């Protein structure tokens, strides 16, 4: 085991990080005889058969144009192979496919490469966490692909580059010191030979950032903090030195507009949770930021809610969709927020503008939005404080948490995995910052509204009219990422009954469902090999879905349920 001492200088402050390389294991079973390199052009214009990025395309749609599986034949869809991952906890990553080779990221810093036709194992990489690492969210949301490499962001705040054929380590680079609360769970975003990642740890008093590393060497190209320092625009929205530990984590993979050369990232909560501790807007928490992909320069931002006190992280990157209203087409950013509002913003070369927003679930914190800026006005009775316990809706997990929505260019509907009838109590308390320790300064309780007739929803919104078209309801909460396809279908799991479902994209009718081993939090994907279309998803309940289930079990005896854990990759196709 090797010890490496790295000296970093930040302004006049020298920080010595003792970074211990974790124990790693790469096991090659049957390495692929050849591999098709992933080029910049393929990432910008992926073939229908492949799933090369977190949401398949840079615009974040979660849409596959494959149309072999349709509303007419989906009832015959059947499992064709499955693979146990060997670990428990929340399996959230999409199975990603490049020319017939599948890459699966799982909890515990594991990447598995398999033949996408058969599920036959090619290689398996494991990175053992260092001793003492506390994994608050022990999961991974996927890998990044470029050239002949596979990139993983780890829970001990490293980026690791693996050889796509053998699984061997090409390079590994520390992004920050995990002992001070930093970690990563996102799928890296690769643009023009740069691997971009953001850091988690908003509940540990970090200062968030997005960084880009050279894809060949791991050398840092640029780094942009999500909280401005002294002398930077927005620093005056933080009292004193509170900016140093203000949070603004970046949990989820960004989206990218090649025409503007801008990449968009959602940011999370301030720290501590309660706004009393840090009066001000607290830029750029709970926001979307636009960064120049070459330099990392901040080009624009929109803050969904200021001085956040409800743990409503807005970490989902917005979907890039051209929205047409009253005969005018706008290049838009579309974000169904954790705060319960569906936001439509305008993307411009040097700005993000507010266009429209309206609630998609019941929300009682915002009294109104400023029609010009979208800045919310709060109900003071719904703002928690130190020693002051208040109730608010939606719950601290929001109208929708991290599971991504999806868009279909066929229907022009946005599909939102939502939760309704869940609310929270929250109360603040004084907390002192200690590196690597919890820095929330709050206690909370989530509960089911009395008389609730359902919890989870799949909603379809016509973005050109601003109207909700249909809603399919579930007794269970919903933690299901959404996939849309060229066959007129929507796929989603997310409920505690372990079912994976196909819906009619036009009507919301459930056309097919398949029981799996556990609850499904994984991002579904679709790919094709040898002319056969497949649907793939990871089943494996855990992390916040399990924590929400615990809150529901305590609140509503009629909805008590225990969901088995354990990760399995499921792959489906039509009968041959």
Name the descriptors.
576 residues; mainly beta; Methanol Dehydrogenase, Chain A; 5-stranded antiparallel β-sheet; 41 strands; disordered N terminus
Indicate the topology:
Blueprint: E1 3-10, E2 13-20, E3 24-28, H1 40-44, E4 63-64, E5 78-84, E6 96-98, E7 101-106, E8 110-115, E9 121-127, E10 144-146, E11 149-153, E12 158-163, E13 169-174, E14 189-191, E15 194-198, E16 209-214, E17 220-225, E18 255-257, E19 262-266, E20 287-292, E21 298-303, E22 319-325, E23 328-336, E24 341-348, E25 351-359, E26 366-369, E27 376-378, E28 389-392, E29 406-408, E30 413-419, E31 422-428, E32 442-448, E33 456-462, E34 467-474, E35 482-485, E36 489-492, E37 499-504, E38 510-515, E39 525-529, E40 532-539, H2 543-555, E41 568-573
Parallel strand pairs: 4-35
Antiparallel strand pairs: 1-2, 3-9, 5-41, 6-7, 7-8, 8-9, 10-11, 11-12, 12-13, 14-15, 15-16, 16-17, 18-19, 19-20, 20-21, 22-23, 23-24, 24-25, 26-27, 28-31, 29-30, 30-33, 31-32, 33-34, 35-36, 36-37, 37-38, 39-40, 40-41
């Amino acid at each position: 085991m090797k010890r490496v001492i790295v000296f970093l200088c930040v302004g006049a402050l020298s920080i010595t990080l003792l970074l211990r390389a974790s124990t790693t294991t790469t096991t090659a079973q049957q390495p692929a005889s050849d591999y098709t390199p992933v080029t910049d052009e393929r990432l910008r214009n992926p073939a229908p058969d492949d799933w090369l990025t977190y949401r398949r395309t840079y615009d974040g749609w979660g849409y596959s144009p494959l149309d072999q599986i349709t509303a007419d034949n989906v009832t015959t869809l059947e499992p064709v192979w499955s693979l146990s991952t060997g670990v428990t906890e929340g399996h959230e990553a999409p199975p990603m496919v490049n020319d017939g080779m599948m890459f699966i990221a799982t909890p515990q810093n594991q990447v598995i490469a398999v033949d996408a036709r058969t599920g036959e194992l090619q290689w398996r990489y494991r990175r053992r966490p260092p001793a003492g690492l506390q994994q608050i969210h022990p999961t991974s949301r996927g890998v990044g692909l470029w050239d002949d490499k596979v990139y993983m962001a780890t829970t001990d705040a490293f980026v690791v580059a693996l050889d796509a054929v053998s699984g061997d380590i090409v390079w590994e680079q520390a992004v920050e010191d995990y002992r001070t609360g930093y970690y990563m769970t996102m799928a890296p975003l690769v643009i023009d030979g740069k691997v971009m990642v953001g850091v988690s740890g908003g509940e540990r008093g970090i200062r968030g950032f997005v960084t880009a590393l050279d894809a060949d060497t791991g050398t840092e190209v640029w780094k942009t903090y999500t909280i401005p320092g002294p002398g930077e625009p927005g620093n005056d929205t933080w009292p004193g030195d509170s900016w140093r530990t203000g949070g603004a984590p970046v949990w989820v993979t960004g989206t990218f507009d090649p025409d503007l050369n801008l990449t968009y990232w959602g940011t999370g909560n301030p720290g501590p949770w309660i706004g009393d501790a840090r009066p001000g807007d607290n830029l750029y928490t709970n926001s979307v930021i636009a960064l120049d992909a070459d330099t990392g320069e901040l080009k624009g931002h929109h803050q969904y809610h200021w001085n956040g006190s409800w743990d409503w992280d807005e970490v989902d990157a917005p979907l890039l969709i051209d929205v047409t209203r009253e005969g005018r087409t706008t290049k838009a950013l579309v974000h169904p927020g954790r705060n319960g509002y569906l936001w439509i913003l305008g993307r411009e070369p040097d700005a993000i503008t507010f266009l429209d927003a309206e609630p998609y679930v019941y929300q009682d914190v915002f009294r109104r939005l400023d029609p010009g800026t979208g800045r919310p006005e709060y109900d003071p009775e719904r703002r928690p404080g130190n020693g002051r316990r208040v109730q608010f809706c939606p719950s601290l997990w929001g109208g929708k948490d991290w599971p991504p929505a999806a868009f279909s260019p066929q229907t022009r509907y946005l599909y939102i995995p939502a939760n309704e009838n869940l609310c929270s109590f929250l109360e603040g308390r004084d907390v002192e910052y200690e590196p690597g320790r919890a820095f929330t300064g709050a206690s909370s309780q989530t509960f089911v509204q009395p008389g609730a007739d359902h919890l989870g929803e799949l909603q379809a919104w016509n973005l050109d009219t601003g109207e909700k078209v249909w809603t399919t309801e579930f007794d269970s909460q919903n933690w299901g990422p959404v996939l849309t396809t060229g066959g007129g279908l929507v796929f989603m799991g997310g409920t505690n009954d372990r079912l994976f479902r196909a819906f009619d994209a036009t009507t919301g009718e459930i056309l097919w469902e398949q029981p799996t081993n556990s609850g499904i939090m994984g991002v579904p994907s679709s790919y094709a090999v040898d002319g056969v279309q497949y649907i793939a998803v990871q089943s494996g309940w855990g992390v916040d879905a399990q924590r929400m289930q615990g809150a529901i079990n305590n609140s509503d005896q009629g909805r008590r349920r225990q969901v088995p854990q354990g990760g399995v990759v499921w792959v489906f196709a039509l009968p041959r």
